[in-house]
Specification:
CATH superfamily of the largest domain: P-loop containing nucleotide triphosphate hydrolases
Distance between the termini: 51 Å
Strand order of the largest sheet: 2-3-4-1-5
Mean pLDDT: 86
Largest sheet: 5 strands, parallel
CATH topology of the largest domain: Rossmann fold
Order of helices and strands: HEHEHHEHEHEHEHHEHHHHHHHH
Length: 350
Amino acid sequence: MNITGNRVTSFLSSPHHDIIGILLYGPDRGLVKERGKVLAKAYSLNVDDIFGPTVLTSDDLIIDPGKLDDEISALSMFGGTRVIRLRLDHERSGVAISKIIKKYDSNPKMAEARLIVEAGELTKRSVIRKTFEASARFGSIACYNLSTSDVVSLIKSRFDDLSINIEKNALQYWAPLIEGDLALINSEVEKMAVYMGYGEKKGRNITIEDIKKVAAGGQDITIPDVIMNTMSGNLLEADSFFYRGIKGKLNSAVILRGLQNYLVRLIQAKTHINNGESPESAISALRPPIFYMHKSTFLNHLKIWPLSTLHKALSQSLIVEQNLKTAGAPQEAIMGRLLIALSSYSKRRS
């Protein structure tokens, strides 16, 4: 069973009693972990104490192939629902796990526990993913990176709960810096909440200056510094900002994610323009809106970059994303080559 869309939230808060296990997978490991925790709490009330869920890893199943089967069929010592959290870092036991899932899918009454499998990205060819999706008593939920608008809504919601106000411009400036991983977002919101005294500083709003002072990526070099100079054809500046950012708190994957989001927004606006809208109207239609300090640069990029080339740039960035995930890959060199290629093109067009 593949659980998607609006069904995800409702299922996580109130999982169907006849579903034995769920596979949570995707590039956002922070979101995978967060959803795993929510689901475990929904299954059992004692997830935080010593009698909480049984936690297994990929290597545990290599050492003891029968461990997962034994745990699913074992009775609870204290009553209630037992929870097993299997954290997958590899799929070397994929075939064995698949057989176990099929066994309990065919004989659900044999299962005494509920299974939560947490994994990274799994392709459509993954044995584990295919088995969960094809099962009636097991389900899969993909955990993809939150969009900029989702991040904006999430940050605002978290601060509203803490009675902390954040200025609109600060929110628009901050969201692209931390999007891409829920764990990073949660950490940064918590850090900012501590800085703001958890709302005790009455009448004090979070400003752009606060973001620059406290937030990851806010100090010195920011992701927009790299992206704006790259897309503007400022080759030397883009290269300098990239490597200075890497020496700081930024990494290639986060910068790539920011670049992809920016390319998507350019494509959206350029499509509106090609359909007869004015550049200003096309920009105003974007959600969340373009940060006001970047608006003139964004307009210039719309003039420089044809729609077809933007699509090619986005496609190339997706290839780079896969290359970055290869074990032992020279990430800085791979990302650096993409930035140089884009900047060189823009420089020729300027």
